[in-house]
Amino acid sequence: MAENIKKEQATTHKLGIYLWIWGLLFVLSFFSYMVDWLQFQGLLRWTLILIFMFLKAGLIMAFFMHLFWERYTLVNVLLWPMTAIATFVGLMVAESKYTVFTRFFYFVLGS
Amino acid sequence: MDQAALKKLPRGWKGIPSDLGSDQTAFKGVNWGKGMMWIFLLSDTFIFSCFLLSYMTGRGSTVQPWPNPSEVFALDVFGVPVPLLLIAIMTFVLITSSGTMAMAVKYGYEKNRKLCGIFLLLTALGGLTFVGMQAFEWSKLIHEGVRPWENPFGAPQFGSFFFMITGFHGTHVSIGVIFLIIFTRKVFRGDFDSGRKGYFTSMKSDYVAIEILGLYWHFVDLVWVFIFAFFYLW
């Protein structure tokens, strides 16, 4: 029995990993808040926001949600559908650009 | 599937064809409840993506200027407006509660009942604080005249996206808090050690339930990362 418990404990992860990830998430959140505080604008702002966002999302999924230790079958089943969302983003960017063009053309310039 | 049998399976990319082509279970070593939670979270990801995408489309296609979130969500501290102060605090509170949840999962697997329960309770308190601050933010904006169809700051779509997205996320947090409190009680009562049957499921459970609850809670935090980036910072 004692050996059994010992074996199970060995499969849980070290406390240090969680504390590290926790700290990193704090630092990254602070950085993304700084993006607004320092009023970065334009491409720099958007790039920094996206970098910090994806880093945070990756850390949460990989370590807090244990995906780093899961078998690739589960990881792949979960991550490939994200390409559908990325495609959807591309479609809707094009769509909104077209809509705003027609609105400017007919409603703003035409009125 | 026990750990020894799992270790014998092919790992990495080679594991995919071998897992999917094998008998009975595709997700080797994954508790069925955990697998179902992941599938649910995948569908939830699509719901939140659709909300954020409609926000992107709405903001990208309006001809009126979008309200500056840095100013709209500023909070006066002794008469000085500090941009996004409340949102920053909310972000840190939610990340902290995510950290305590990870601890609860860890101590749950180590069958440390007391620490697991304490960290679950701390997580619930963090979630409750978050919802409270969100309620404060909502009432502040409603007082300032933000409605789903109009607002004094700019493009009228702002209100509908704000209430829809943060409201849906807040609902998720609230549901999470309810389940955290239920599971805190279960942990302290020793349900996962004694094998006591659940009230609704009438099935025995063990500490894997805490990991499943943890997945949901981390997902709520994950969604907030995206809302924070796209709605408040962009």
UniProtKB/TrEMBL annotation, chain A:
GO terms for cellular component: plasma membrane. Its main location: membrane. Signal peptide: none annotated. The chain crosses the membrane at residues 17-35, 47-69, 75-94. The lineage of its organism: unclassified sequences, metagenomes, ecological metagenomes. Keywords: Cell membrane, Membrane, Transmembrane, Transmembrane helix. InterPro entries: Cyt_c_oxidase_su4_prok. This is Cytochrome C oxidase subunit IV. Pfam families: COX4_pro (PF03626). It is a multi-pass membrane protein. It is found in: Cell membrane.
